[in-house]
Amino acid sequence: MQSRLLLTFHLVFAAFILLVSSTVFAAPKADLWSYWQSSNEANSMPINHQLWQQTLNRHIVQQGDQTLFSYNQVDQEGKWQLDRYVREMSKINPLKYRKAEQFAYWVNLYNALTVQLIVDNYPIKSITKIGGLFSFGPWDDDVVTVNGKKLTLNDIEHRILRPIWQDNRIHYAVNCASLGCPNLQVHAFTASNSDHLLDLAAKQFINSKKGVISTNNKTQLSSIYDWYQADFGNTAQLQRHLNQYRTTPVTLKNIDYDYDWALNEAK
């Protein structure tokens, strides 16, 4: 009887974990945190992202249409450099800068924090394994404090970037350390290169198999287009968006969605 009860418990627990894993990652809606809306457009001073660029230079590895990250090669000096970059960014008041500087600031900070989470928990097979027992990844964990405000990755993406800039290319810029995610760009974002990098990231992703696979009978799309349908619009609008960047135009039909949560690790 005891063994049967134990088996039943394990089965129920496994079913619960499966349910949690499949439902917790429901894409958050864009929900403006109005505190972060203001800017100083008269300030032409740039924010220095050189430390983040140095981390990218050392650890980004290009393999086919993937940019992978050599987490296993990050030594103590590399960890210190990454920590220093995050600390320096946390001391900045982004509201004192113009919007273009703020955009680059938030994208770089998001990506650096994601890499830092992986490095601090390495070795790990997926970012979804970080967090508490009943959490699906670290996106709702406090990871940085800016202007005295504790921020999560979800705050940065869904309460700052998406609602303030309202640009669906943001989904190609923030990286979740997974093979299914749009590439972590080899260049740090800046006020002057952000628009170019957004277009480049969109083109890379939409022309890759992790973005779009089209056959005669069906289309497999990244789950990003399912999770964030509100940002990409209906099927006709999404098709126009994709074909803006596709080298070969696609006709969307019999759509399936897929996403690979395996770590984007260069081994």
Automatic annotation (TrEMBL):
The signal peptide, as residue positions, is 1-26
The UniProt keyword set, sorted, is: Signal
Pfam families, A to Z = DUF547
Q: Which residues form the DUF547 domain?
A: 97-206
Superkingdom of the source?
Bacteria
User: Can you say what this protein is called?
Assistant: DUF547 domain-containing protein
The record lists the lineage as: Bacteria, Pseudomonadati, Pseudomonadota, Gammaproteobacteria, Vibrionales
